[in-house]
Specification:
The protein is α/β, with parallel strands linked by helices and 264 residues long. It has helices at residues 8-15, 18-27, 35-46, 63-72, 83-95, 134-144, 165-175, 183-192, 206-218, 221-227, 232-250; strands at residues 53-57, 75-80, 102-106, 119-125, 145-158, 195-203, 254-263.
Length: 264
């Protein structure tokens, strides 16, 4: 594993500021790769059904929770460490008439503010790459799940081609990731904490980086510059980092994984 000195405080600063709005611009409210189609595939693999209760760890704006509540009839608790995101999430839940199905708790996902065995499933979408101690995160996920409960998540991961130390430092620093796990690394963490894997798979990533760069360069330039306060130098610098990440993605050095496992 190739670590950077990124901390939770660094991640909170991102999601309290304009960088979060930039990701929202190009990725939509769900702020994860693949949007609703990715969520649908994950939920179906997890076997979600009406009446289940889940927790979304690093829930951000709660868009995934709203999607699951509407589509699968589940009840959800969202945990996030950033006040700005939680305030927006509560407003969106209220505006969509989902206050009775969704609740939000501020907290560190390595110390989940929940009872032992409180939930039927744990959910996460492209967000645990921001967590410093992923071992503790998976341990906490196991704690708050009922026996037989399901953990279902997607995440940015180091690809099979691997990153050099310098490549990992550059990408993780830009993205504000402490580090990226690998497919095998997550599988090992799940097994260590009493999960039996149902699905551990690499899923599409590189084509989405192509899409985001095309949108920024060909459609959303004005909007992105507005978010960045008109700073064209910063816009170009961020674009260069995304181009570097695109090359790494096409080389199989950075990708995404989908993970579904059952607690023994």
């Amino acid at each position: 594993m190739k670590h950077t000195p990124i901390t939770l405080a660094d991640v909170q600063r991102v999601y309290d500021g304009p960088e979060a709005d930039l990701w929202l611009l190009i990725m939509g409210e769900q702020i994860h790769v693949g949007g609703m189609n990715s969520s649908l595939a994950l939920a179906r693999s997890a076997g979600l059904a009406s009446g289940m209760t889940g927790v979304d760890l690093c829930c951000c704006l709660g868009a995934g929770m709203r999607f699951l509540a509407k589509t699968f009839g589940v009840r959800m608790c969202g945990v996030d460490a950033t006040d700005r995101m939680l305030d927006r999430a509560r407003l969106r839940a209220r505006d969509e008439g989902l206050e009775d199905k969704l609740e939000f708790r501020k907290g560190d996902v390595t110390q989940i503010p929940a009872r032992d065995g409180e939930f039927d499933f744990v959910w996460g979408e492209d967000a645990w790459c921001y967590v410093v101690d992923k071992d503790r995160l998976i341990a906490e996920a196991a704690r708050v799940l009922k026996p037989g409960g399901v953990i279902a998540f997607t995440d940015w991961i180091e690809g099979p081609a691997g990153l050099s130390e310098a490549e990992a430092l550059r990408i993780n620093t830009f993205m504000k990731f402490p580090y990226m796990e690998s497919l095998d690394g997550y599988a090992a963490l799940l097994a260590r904490h009493g999960f039996v894997a149902r699905e551990t798979a690499e899923i599409e990533f590189a084509k989405f980086v192509d899409l985001y760069l095309a949108m920024l360069g060909e459609q959303l330039t004005f909007d992105a510059l507005r978010i960045l306060g008109g700073d064209e130098a910063l816009f170009r610098a961020m674009g260069a980092e995304m181009e570097f990440m695109r090359a790494a993605a096409h080389a199989g050095k950075v990708t995404r994984g989908r993970f579904v496992a059952v607690k023994r």
